[in-house]
Amino acid sequence: MVDQVVKYFREKEKFIEFQNIELDLLKFIFGSPQQIFGITVFEDESSLQRGWEKVSEEFAVRIQSQLVASLYDLKWDMYLILVVQKSIEDIELCKRIENDRMFFKKIVLAENLGDLKRKLPIELELENSDELEVFSDSQFLKELRKVVPSEVASRFDFSLYESMSITEVNNTIFLEPYKSKEV
């Protein structure tokens, strides 16, 4: 399982593997301008239960606390991936670990827990796109009329949006008055 996870990150062009950081418990660190992922491996469920907090502390102290200056904001986009080599029976343990948001988000991966790509917050993969419902401008305005209070609707000229594109109307209403005043 860990080979599959590491291969996934190595194949993504946006991630860099940091190999010259000496860590005791973390096995791999991958970073991009948007995210940092730490990966560790546990043999089984009981070793996960005993060791996940220690790995979490190492990731926080050795990596997260070192993010300063322009890297400081990355501390909010860190993820600890806990790979378990065997199946996990105690789903409540996984929930407890993944719901613990101390320092950063934790993700538990095991063979019996589903597709790893669905658990990793890296890219949005939309399946069954034929089921997606996308609003056109006119559909959006129709729905907006239903929810806008009547006193607001009476002051709002919806007909403008029916005769021009939303971009043109927004420019006319919100930008043009200020351009003429040279604000």
Automatic annotation (TrEMBL):
Full protein name: Uncharacterized protein
Origin species: Bacillus mycoides
